[in-house]
Request: fold
Amino acid sequence: MPVSLSKGQKVSLTKKRPSLKEVTVGLGWDAQEGGGYAFDLDVSAFLCAANGKCRRDKDFVFYNNLDHPSGSVIHMGDNRTGDGDGDDEQVKVILSKVPADIEKIVFTITIDDAERRGQNFGMVRNAYCRVVDENDGAELTRYNLNEEASIETAVVMAELYRHDGEWEFHAIGDGCQGGLAGLCRRYGIDVE
Reply:
């Protein structure tokens, strides 16, 4: 039975499953049309050091950089429509391969070209983030974004992080302005 979290809550993933080696972080949503355009939402993962920033640009995994050089984080591809049931985009994380100086992996959703298209998360429903054990397919935890993010164009959904030798999951659900470029600046990635 998966643990259902509310905004701000945390749960240990490895305390009850010490043999946990690989997880899939699945994110999904339902978007209506906005501004006369279809929605294109994108999942990104920022691998952050102790200072809360990415060490280098390759620590940013997204639709144009699908694999981290360590092989620890793999984006499974861009879903341009979000149609259908289940996860719209997924990121695989091989916990044992995450570099020792990476303390957390932040998972975000952004709306592509949101400002020009007049789109925001107030037009997105049923957004969620879940963690699945790749070994047996069991859903370990889920966070449903229930909060209204009416004007934001990006959401920091959740993070996987190390704490006292364990891997934990933190449901965040913070809306942000500035889309993907704003998130890149927040996590130390150069944006031209």
In short: The mean pLDDT is 91. Residues 179-186 form the longest helix (8 residues). Residues 63 and 78 are 6 Å apart (CA to CA).
